[in-house]
Amino acid sequence: MRQKLALLLAGLAAGAVVARFLRKRRRSHGHELPAPAPDQRADALRRQLAESREGGGASPADSAAPLGSDVDEARRRVHEHGRAAVDEMRRSGS
Q1: How far apart, in whole angstroms, are the C-alpha atoms of residue 72 and residue 74?
Q2: Over the stretch 40-81, which tens digit does the pLDDT of each residue have?
Q3: DSSP 86
Q4: DSSP single-letter state for residue 29
Q5: In whole angstroms, what separates CA 85 from the centre of its chain?
Q6: Which of 73, 54, 56, 76 is nearest to 65 (CA)?
Q7: What pLDDT, on the 0 to 100 scale, is given for residue 31?
Q8: CA-closest candidate to residue 57, choices 49, 65, 66
């Protein structure tokens, strides 16, 4: 069993060495792989980003409502609702 495993590992290592040699040889003879085609979506996003930076840096977060009493009020209501639900579960479980 160990001999089979050793033979398998040796074969994999030899294959990796041969593949690397062939890859180096192909590149040295000018047979490099072609460059991947440019992604048009990436180019569009780059243009959009550049335009947004030129526009003064305003972002959707800048126009959002400031945090304050509205958030505190919503948080208070959520906690009250949660406490009422817990109280109801305790009453119905007893």
Answers
A1: 5
A2: 888 899 999 898 888 765 666 656 556 667 888 899 999 999
A3: H
A4: T
A5: 37
A6: 73
A7: 63
A8: 49
Cα–Cα distance between 39 and 41 in angstroms, integer? 5
Task: Read off the tokens for 22.
Answer: 């062939």
Distance from C-alpha of 83 to C-alpha of 7, rounded to nearest angstrom: 68
Distances from the Cα of 40 to the Cα of 36, 48, 52, 56, angstroms? 12, 12, 18, 25
d(CA 29, CA 23): 10
**Would you state the structure tokens that stand for residue 44, as one six-digit string?**
């569009």
Q: What is the pTM of this model?
A: 0.29
Provide mean pLDDT across the span 11-29. Answer: 84
Instruction: For residue 5, give the 3-state DSSP assignment.
Output: helix
Residue pair 34/28 in contact by the 8 Å Cβ criterion: no
